[in-house]
Description:
site-specific DNA-methyltransferase (adenine-specific) activity, 5-stranded mixed β-sheet, DNA_methylase_N4/N6, Trna Endonuclease, Chain: A, domain 1, Rossmann fold, 567 residues, alpha/beta, 3 domains
Amino acid sequence: xxxxxxxxxxxxxxxxxxxxxxxxxxxxxxxxxxxxxxxxxxxxxxxxxxxxxxxxxxxxxxxxxxxxxxxxxxxxxxxxxxxxxxxxxxxxxxxxxxxxxxxxxxxxxxxxxxxxxxxxxxxxxxxxxxxxxxxxxxxxxxxxxxxxxxxxxxxxxxxxxxxxxxxxxxxxxxxxxxxxxxxxxxxxxxxxxxxxxxxxxxxxxxxxxxxxxxxxxxxxxxxxxxxxxxxxxxxxxxxxxxxxxxxxxxxxxxxxxxxxxxxxxxxxxxxxxxxxxxxxxxxxxxxxxxxxxxxxxxxxxxxxxxxxxxxxxxxxxxxxxxxxxxxxxxxxxxxxxxxxxxxxxxxxxxxxxxxxxxxxxxxxxxxxxxxxxxxxxxxxxxxxxxxxxxxxxxxxxxxxxxxxxxxxxxxxxxxxxxxxxxxxxxxxxxxxxxxxxxxxxxxxxxxxxxxxxxxxxxxxxxxxxxxxxxxxxxxxxxxxxxxxxxxxxxxxxxxxxxxxxxxxxxxxxxxxxxxxxxxxxxxxxxxxxxxxxxxxxxxxxxxxxxxxxxxxxxxxxxxxxxxxxxx
Length: 567
């Protein structure tokens, strides 16, 4: 393979892509929640969405493209082990197809300096790495971090499983490098800083003053206070030019050992250290382990109702420390029990979570209410001095826009009121839903530019109505009219275009499909003729599917429109 050739992963069904319907979101105000008061740095514009995460991501596509700083996901590992919340044993090709569809959308959401962090294990890591190379570009690979999830030996396997991976890619690696944060210095790392000489500036350590290579202006001789003479060791030079060394010597920043005759080193004070460059080994002492995560889950939900595969809050904190700053937007589209959102909230980041299962309401809602009320005392709460505050809005996906009537024809769903229909058509036709509050602009339901607007109605539009709309919109604007039917000659009006509903969108996507979840139940049944040794053997019945884990969503400030609510 030449350097110009691109390594691609192939699998059965790779060329088949879902035709996703861009749904609208409906707020459930009874499940939305916020603190009674707010401070300047509280974030109320957080979003929790219950629904299929692929459809939810599609619903957010227009609003979120290029806006997310960090995506942190923990998708099903495809290990073959079934958990209560989802079936984690998907046929390999299906897993790749469904992950690819989600990752392509997530790639669009990242800001130029954003990054994505994916928890995964050995079952699919290698395939996911190649898939990520295809979508994000091999040049944007950042690292594979190894999380030590167990601190005791696993004796049930041939070789005990002690770690998971966290695969990290950037949207643009050079941009991410400029904003990547260091990790805080813990006491274990700070232990090498001492103050044996009672230096008034506090604890310090000596940093070797040599560098590899030969640079003529860094090959000078150094005389110590005791009179000892030092030149750089063979193959090395001093780490600075002589004038810089003399400056540091005058400032008392050069250390020559206890007797004043050792090879010089540069004094670095603990107070000057702004953290450590992250590395790929994440031991459990620093970021937690599975037992710690289960204890956190027990404290939140009780021992009899615990999410099967939680991540410790310290692990998510480490990711967000590196990839984000306060106020940045964090997205988790496989939200599980809500750990990402809980930690992001405590760290004063904005967050979007998407979760398909019932635990969106049984786990995430009560957890986030505890965080907002300051009643969650576990995890990273004390370390971050979290006292409570903020809020979020709870959404679910609207039903499919089109449904079949009793004769099998596609018609607009009976569950859509005029406002919902107008917003849905804006999504389908590429307009921003923003109905005018000015009664004189009754025709303005949204815009795509300063001169292009859309008007949606369930009425049959007559020639007289077309004339009125043309006049009211004015000659300097163009108006797209979406209606049930129309009569007359719209071509007579230069500033109008008319489209029928549902014909205008009928071919756009799959209608009526609510489930793109990662589970075996999604596999189609294929009949095959028996042959050879298996001619008399019946295929086993398909494994019953269980609901999968889901994802996260978007923030309310993204929806600049009158709120739709349900009781």
